[in-house]
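To: structure desk
From: M.T.
Subject: fold request, one chain
Message: Could you run this one when you get a chance? Sequence is below, nothing fancy, just the single chain.
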Amino acid sequence: MKKYLSLVSALCLVSALQAQENTAADALRYTQNDFNGTARFKAMSGAFGAVGGDLSSTKINPAGSALFNYNTAAFSLYSTNKKNRSSYMGSESSDRYNGLDFGQMGAAFVFNNSNAEGLMKKFVIGVNYENTANFNNNIHTRGINNNSIANYFVDHANYSNNGNPIPIEYLQLEKGETIPGLYQYLGEYGIGYQQALLGFHGRLFEQDKDGTYVSNVGAGQLIQNSLISSSGFNGKLSANFSTQIGERFYVGTNLNLHFTDYTKLTTVEERSINSSNEGVQRIVFQNELYTYGNGFSFNIGALAKVTDNLRLGLAYESPTWYRLNDELAQFLRTETLITNENNKLETANYVVDPNTINIYKEHKVQTPSIYTGSIAYIFGQQGLISFDYTRKDYSKTKFKPEDAFAYNNADLKNNLSSTNEYRVGAEYRIKQFSIRGGYRFEESPYKDTKVIGDLNSFSGGIGYDFGGSRLDLAYVHTSRPYSTSLMSSGMNDMARIKTTDNNIGLTYSLNF
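Reply: Done. Structure tokens follow.
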């Protein structure tokens, strides 16, 4: 007899489930950003660590706000066009997302020291909110394979019991028991038991004589489709404090609150090309993951005017300490050809709907620290050129509590690496007009660059100064390739995705 939990209903929220299948990709969702911000910042590819004087520059080096001479406010919008080209098993497919979103809003207040002999010339208090990542996207993958996604369920059934097959009585319904009730009960043993339950009642596998489980999908070619539709954002609210010390030195700090809201709906479908043989003919597996939470981090930075034209900057950003909640809903439908009592083939449909939302225990993610060195050369009133170098060790990323995520953290440490990021930007002024351009390059966070490739981005823009206000426009093109599997285990056939993002940003800023 199984030990039963007290279940409220089929729609019950399960709050005591074991750790879910968090991967390196989940962790990286909080360690990387889209470099959103003001249009001037975007047009120069974020190379602002030694430039300052821009609300978005403070997230690179918080000392930069001390270069403001006037109270300043800015508001930004941006539109994005994401295109994903997928190559899977020799087949090509593509999908895209288009949308308009909020980018940035903030203000900085300058307080000058009336004592001209004072060491502290002024201090600045600022507040700024930015969407640091936009998760809205659609990815479609299609190809012909002979490795069934049923192996995902077989894999969980065979290895989730401390590396051994799950006893079949855990997967069978007892008298008066329902699939939603058993699904919730098995959640106490881990998500692997739940996946095995789905596959067992979807007739995707059966138990062999030796106690292991074998797939019911016959040999032959299979048409596989995967559609991932995601939405949401990472956001950051920063309180900035900076000061000018003497004539050439500036220091500052940020206190940052982070917010995340992420939804991913994944639908994987498989059809057998040879539909005349007995066995599984079609599988539709759907997962909807919802992650939400918040975090905290801080920045410190310094900026020096070495000469009237040359500036140097140095900044540190602490890890972000996130507290996250995950919710997961699943659904499986299969079609199987069986021989009926008249010795004829007929289609049997199996719908396995747990009708349950798994609510997992709150967990934490700690992102790596960031170190940035910057240099800028100012050509008087004519323009500037700037360069930022950033170092980040992605292998320091951690899930917490560490005892519950020991395997996940070992995977992060073994597969992720330190990266170098380079950003260069330039601006040239012609009376009230400013012309800008930039380039950004970031190395892959993986030791194996086939998993995620290097990021390349170039940008450009234009601005017009009305005197007390300014309107800026920016264009940013970003591309990065990566590989992904249709299922997280049981099959290792990878799809190669190249994502390109064409982003247009518009900012209105006002001095007051």
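Reply (cont.): The first strand starts at residue 13 and ends at 17. Let me know if you need anything else for the meeting.
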